[in-house]
Amino acid sequence: MSILIKGGLVVTAAGSYNADVLVDGEKIKTMGLGLDYRADEVVDAAGKYVLPGVIDPHTHLAMPFMGTFSQDDFETGTIAAACGGTTCVVDFDLQQEGESLGDAIERKKGVAAGKAVLDYSFHPAVLDPRPEIIDEIKKAVQEYGTPSFKIFMYYGFRVDDYTMIRLLEETKKYGGLVQVHAENFDIIRRNDEIFEKEGKLSPWYHGQAHAVIAEEEAIERACRMVEYTGSRIYIVHLSSAEGLWKVKKARDRGVEIYAETCPQYLTLDDECYNEADWQGAKYVMSPPLRPKAGIGELWTGLAGGDLQTVATDHCPFDFKGRKDMNGKEDYKKIPNGAPGIETLLMLLHSEGVVKGRISLERMVEVLSTNTARMFGLKDKGAIAPGKDADIVIFDPKQKFTLTQEKLHMNVDYTPWEGWEMSGAPAVVYSRGKRVAEWSGDRVKFVGEVGHGRFVKREPFEGHYL
Ligand code: URP
Ligand code: ZN
Ligand code: ZN
């Protein structure tokens, strides 16, 4: 099957230009002005952008967490992702007690198999760091095709500094990358105790307990471990301007540090926790939403290169039945996480590009190109000959009001209910297969359940971002 996409503006991290794009089977074959080729399908993309599919490197699909499961599985979650212009997800695979990393990967492959509509990979999360697990890093990088490893400095399953050091040492040797949830457990624990005593238990106090200083301290400590080992690190879901300063300071000292933020930290603020009737629980996530005053600095960091990627941290729980499953009395009992796998590209375009905070090219860089390089997805992340035909034809003029009812995520709310979007996907291809298209008043899924494949990723390339 061949597809000729005609007359669109091809956007790459390096620049944008008018070109036709020829897809042959699963790959982009060639590009150029006025391509004359009799393709099986010709698509008119005049007035539209031709973008590489978004790669979301931070999702939690079908994940057991805080006494429940994140609600989207690999079918509903990747359908929603496709409808938002995402064509690949790298999901967290939390090692269970006693499992090897290889076991964890095989278990999660079983969870995704036959369900995913898009390509996917996993980051093993090290929760049970036995010596043989540290020894397994080499195999995970070189054989399993999973060269990135998540660790938590927060939650009951956090790792100690020794484990962090050992993982940094091993990933340095073999071309791996440690990703860290950077929040100081004991600062939060002490704040929780104080608020408990004072009877301060509404969702607002979730944000207060997870104070900015907890993020700053953990980033600072992680950076020192990188300095000590000479390794590299990637901070997931960076939430605050103060955290970003720590990243910049460390980088200025020569520490190889990368950082991701999420749309929620770029667009929402801690006032959301004051929404009436326990609605503030919708935004209970870790790290939490921060004061409005710091948001501009995150955008500046994204535009200027201090932040390398944007991901969703998609971890959905219904407002009714899950966010209140342990009652409405104590923020500590609210499952942490929020939905966002479907809204990433639209939010970055509307709030970033349209509002002049980042360029179109930078949007492509932080949503696709950098992400592909960072996580070793060598066939993805750009519109270029030889790459997978993971393509979004994006209509910048399409108006769309975000509302849970028109989105596909398996959850009963979106944090951006009622937000007006300028621009939406017109057509989305995954390896040359049409998986989603605009239809009347929303994007519709038109792909095939089970089309998605597990992608073996390459070791980290290093020193290029
Ligand atoms: O609150 C969040 N972010 N939930 C998902 C798990 C994590 O920490 O990434
Ligand atoms: Zn996290
Ligand atoms: Zn997460």
SSE layout and pairing:
Blueprint: E1 2-12, E2 15-24, E3 27-32, E4 41-44, E5 49-52, E6 54-59, E7 64-65, E8 68-69, H1 74-83, E9 86-94, H2 101-112, E10 119-125, H3 131-135, H4 137-144, E11 148-152, H5 161-174, E12 177-181, H6 185-197, H7 203-209, H8 212-229, E13 232-235, H9 241-252, E14 256-261, H10 263-267, H11 295-304, E15 309-310, H12 344-353, H13 360-374, E16 391-401, E17 420-430, E18 433-439, E19 442-445
Parallel strand pairs: 1-4, 1-5, 6-9, 9-10, 11-12, 12-13, 13-14, 14-15
Antiparallel strand pairs: 1-2, 2-3, 5-16, 7-8, 16-17, 17-18, 18-19
This protein binds N-(aminocarbonyl)-beta-alanine and zinc ion (2 copies).
What does this structure look like?
By secondary structure, the chain is an alpha/beta fold. It has 13 helices and 19 strands. The strands form four sheets. Strands 1, 2, 3, 4, 5, 16, 17, 18 and 19 form a nine-stranded mixed sheet that branches. A hairpin with a 2-residue loop joins strand 18 and strand 19. Helix 5 crosses helix 8. The longest helix has 18 residues. It is globular and about 70 Å long. The chain starts with a strand and ends in a 20-residue tail after the last strand. The mean pLDDT is 97. One zinc ion binds next to loops.
TL;DR of this structure?
The chain has 465 residues and is an alpha/beta fold. It has 13 helices and 19 strands. The protein has helices at residues 74-83, 101-112, 131-135, 137-144, 161-174, 185-197, 203-209, 212-229, 241-252, 263-267, 295-304, 344-353, 360-374; strands at 2-12, 15-24, 27-32, 41-44, 49-52, 54-59, 64-65, 68-69, 86-94, 119-125, 148-152, 177-181, 232-235, 256-261, 309-310, 391-401, 420-430, 433-439, 442-445.
